[in-house]
Amino acid sequence: MNTFRSVLVLMTVSIVAYTLITGVNHGWNLFPLFFGEIAAMTWSGQFNLDFTCFLALSGLWIAWRHQFSPDGLALGLVATVGGIVVLAPYLLFATFQANGDMNVLLLGKKRVIQ
Prior knowledge:
Blueprint lengths: L1 H25 L3 H10 L3 H23 L4 H13 L1 H14 L4 H6 L7
Helix pairs in contact: 1-5, 2-3, 3-4
């Protein structure tokens, strides 16, 4: 579990640093570029669409894990937009809440039969 947690911290630090450098060098207006590539039907657009599907799936999983409660829906929406900057810290926090139990981590505490 400690290795997994270390990977989550590394992912978070890496993407935050990369995002800051990219934003400073190229500006913060990501969405027109991101969706423009999808509309242009380029390979970059294909990757962006695939990534968008992954983000939607991660957001749906978070919302489902919280049984589609208002908090779960809000977290899911934030994860869909925020990507790994949200998902990795969320998982890191959840690993401690689950005391390292992967069933609890993946399913949520209410779905695991003790």
